[in-house]
Structure to design on (304 residues):
């Protein structure tokens, strides 16, 4: 892959088979996130469920269907819950993968200030980000996930998910994808059972392959490797089916090199949400940085 020709694939309608498994029955027919989010079905959500011990994902789906009268929808799922304060939209894994491939980047926020977190992420969304992630280390992170998952055109995920209970709570509050700094089989299986995308943290090729074999649709590269893009290229050479998403140390200068190396997408953290900007309320600077970073990701070349 090191000498492969590259091309700008801003028209992301087709995802190369060498990069991902092609969605089949759940393939998206509309263009862009706006047309995707129009495909919803209103269904009451069941909050604070205590699942029977050993019940499978299929069993849970049947139980929810019986309790709510809901039928499976192969697109977006929109739930209305008075206990969770309104309607929110979830995205199933195949469509999330397609969207992430098209959008190329997510905004990942970690801060100790709840109010500043809402303002900072709103600035990132105004700057063009449609896929956003709140780490569960943020005070009131679940409330933020719930609030932002109601916004049209925004897909929300939960980061730093370390336990099955955190995975369940995040999904019930509106998370369409789960991200973890580690590979935990129980968390991965819980995400799969709930029907949402999972991105465990991996660093070595062994961890990446293990996560893939467990069913994780994406492999978060964390922490940043010393080799940067060359490290990604070396990992993908024997395993081109991996969907590697680096989230640590990605900035405007190196994002192009990471895409040339073959990453599926990237996550922007500190280069987007500069701690001083958050602390001093300089949200207009975050918005400006969001536009620049998103443009850099969208203009980056990908291997053919």
């Amino acid at each position: 892959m090191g000498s492969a020709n590259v091309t700008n694939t801003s028209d992301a309608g087709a995802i190369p088979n060498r990069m991902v498994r092609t969605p089949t029955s759940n393939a998206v027919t509309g263009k862009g996130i706006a047309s995707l989010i129009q495909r919803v079905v209103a269904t009451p959500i069941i909050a604070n469920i205590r699942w029977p011990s050993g019940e499978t994902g299929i069993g849970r789906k049947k139980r929810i269907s019986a309790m709510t009268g809901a039928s499976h929808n192969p697109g977006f799922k929109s739930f209305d819950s008075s206990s969770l304060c309104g309607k929110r939209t979830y995205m199933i894994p195949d469509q999330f993968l397609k969207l992430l491939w098209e959008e190329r980047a997510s905004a990942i926020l970690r801060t100790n200030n709840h109010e500043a977190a809402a303002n900072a992420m709103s600035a990132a969304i105004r700057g063009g980000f449609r896929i956003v992630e709140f780490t569960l280390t943020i005070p009131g992170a679940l409330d933020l996930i719930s609030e932002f998952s109601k916004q049209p055109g925004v897909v929300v995920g939960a980061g730093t998910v370390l336990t099955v209970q955190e995975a369940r709570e995040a999904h019930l509050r509106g998370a369409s994808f789960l991200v973890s700094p580690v590979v935990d089989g129980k968390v991965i299986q819980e995400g799969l059972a709930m029907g949402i995308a999972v991105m465990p943290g991996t660093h070595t090729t062994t961890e990446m392959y293990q996560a893939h074999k467990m069913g994780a649709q994406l492999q978060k590269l964390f922490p940043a490797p010393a080799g940067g893009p060359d490290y990604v290229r070396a990992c993908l050479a024997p395993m081109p089916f991996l969907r590697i998403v680096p989230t640590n140390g990605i900035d405007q200068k190196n994002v192009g090199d990471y895409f040339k190396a073959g990453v599926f997408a990237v996550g922007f953290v500190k280069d987007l949400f500069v701690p001083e900007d958050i602390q001093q309320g300089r949200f207009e600077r975050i918005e400006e940085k969001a536009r620049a970073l998103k443009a850099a990701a969208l203009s980056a070349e990908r291997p053919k």
Summary: The radius of gyration is 18 Å. Residues 53 and 60 are 11 Å apart (CA to CA).
